[in-house]
Amino acid sequence: MAAVQLSGIYKRYGDTQVVHGIDLHIDDGEFVVLVGPSGCGKSTLMRMVAGLEEISGGELTIGGTRANSLPPQQRNISMVFQSYALYPHLSVYDNIAFGPRIRKEASTSFKPRIEAAAKMLNLSGYLDRLPRALSGGQRQRVAMGRAVVREPSLFLFDEPLSNLDAKLRVQMRTEIKALHQRLKNTVIYVTHDQIEAMTMADRIVVMNAGRIEQIGRPLELYDRPANLFVASFLGSPSMNFSAGEVVSAPAGVALKLGDGVQIPLPGAAVTPGAKVTLGVRPEHIETSTEGIPMDVEVIEPTGAETHLYGKIGGAAWCVTTRQRASIEPGQRVTVRFPEQHMHLFDTESGSRLG
Ligand code: ADP
Predict the structure, then answer these.
(1) What is the distance of C-alpha 329 from the center of its chain?
(2) Contact partners, residue 305, CB within 8 Å, separation at least 6
(3) d(CA 8, CA 161)
(4) Which of 97, 163, 204, 312 would be 317's cystine partner, CB 3.0–4.6 Å?
(5) CATH architecture observed for domain 4-225
């Protein structure tokens, strides 16, 4: 078991710095997901933890030991990649046994571990097969089996589900989570998929351009995003935004949007003249008999819920409703925003207000 500490970690390729001073503590047994758009530095950070990439600066400790210069094999880590990297000419059993054999373990020592891992991963009936005779999900399980038999104190997953189809991805997501609940290892999991992050993580680390934007439990980030980046990254369909200027209103202040629509901001700590962006998640918007007008342009029924797309304050907004409203494109609806679900951000800095 191992806690992981990153202090001021950065990475430079030649003159270009791609990871800018990451501070992150991961508790022993915690499942932490690094999420962010492609190119934000997730894999580089993970590969530095694994020892596959040199650390340009800062300090890494694993299980309390300084690990900056430890060779990968001495870090007690198992890594599962997007490409399963199975040996095509070896059976499932031999693929899983490859690591222990390289380390010259006796087969009496690793055989029971392989059998236990195969049972846990539903691979017991497939141990004699070659990888090409397995489905994508089964191959991914073999890759996990190989990681599990190492009995590592730290698991690293780098986009392990990206090559699977949507249905299998959902299934494997649950399996990896169940595996973690059984083994209770520390896990660092990299993905660009915010749904994977939300559903699997104990804590999410949202990264952008080589920096951490916010760290927190999934629903903390969802309910109180620290800035516009996090607010727009988590959630699907994503949070709606309209920028405007704070003006005086009869009952306190209001936000005057691009097209002149005014939205009261009761109790908001903002002063007239401030340039503010309002954010509201689609599922928090209520349709009501009076309120803010939205001309509906597109209607998307998904079965469980319906997405209404239109414009509010000159910006494109989406409203999600669970009612099967008989609304037609071109129709005007009125909506209201419950106060507790209105997020305000400083338009220039992007930081959350209040
Ligand atoms: P992510 O995993 O979030 O998609 P990466 O960690 O792969 O992002 O990459 C982060 C940044 O570092 C990118 O801009 C990428 O182009 C750059 N990068 C990655 N590897 C190298 C390399 N070997 N040499 C130069 N730049 C690199």
Answers:
(1) 34
(2) 283, 320, 321, 322
(3) 30
(4) 312
(5) 3-Layer(aba) Sandwich (3.40)
Instruction: Give ligand 1 pocket residues (Cβ under 6 A).
Output: 13, 18, 36, 38-44
* Domain positions in the chain: 4-225, 240-346
| DSSP-derived secondary structure for 167-220 | HHHHHHHHHHHHHHHHH--EEEEEES-HHHHHHH-SEEEEEETTEEEEEE-HHH
Q: Which two tokens stand for residue 50?
A: 């694994």
Q: Is the pLDDT of residue 201 over 80?
A: yes
Mutate to test the pocket of ligand 1, among 20, 33, 44, 48 (most ligand atoms within 8 A of CB): 44
Mean pLDDT value across the chain: 92
Q: How far is the CA of 59 from the CAs of 25, 30, 128, 262, in angstroms?
A: 12, 20, 44, 50
pLDDT tens-digit series, residues 263-320:
999 888 899 999 999 999 999 999 988 889 999 999 999 999 999 999 988 889 999 9
Determine the residue type at 290: E
**Dist. CA 67–CA 98, nearest whole Å:** 25
Atom of ligand 1 nearest to the CA of 210: 10
Instruction: Single out the residue of 85, 24, 97 nearest to residue 52, CA to CA.
Output: 85
Q: Which helix (H) or strand (E) holds 316?
A: strand 315-321
Q: Which atom of ligand 1 is nearest to the CA of 47?
A: 6
Q: For residues 343 and 85, what is the distance between their CA atoms, to the nearest angstrom? A: 44
User: What is the tens place of the pLDDT at every residue in 129-187?
Assistant: 999 999 888 898 899 889 888 888 899 999 988 877 888 788 888 888 988 998 899 99
Q: How is domain 240-346 classified at the CATH fold level?
A: OB fold (Dihydrolipoamide Acetyltransferase, E2P) (2.40.50)
Q: Are 156 and 79 in contact (CB under 8 A)?
A: yes
Mutation to probe ligand 1, out of 17, 18, 82, 162 (largest number of atoms < 8 A from CB): 18
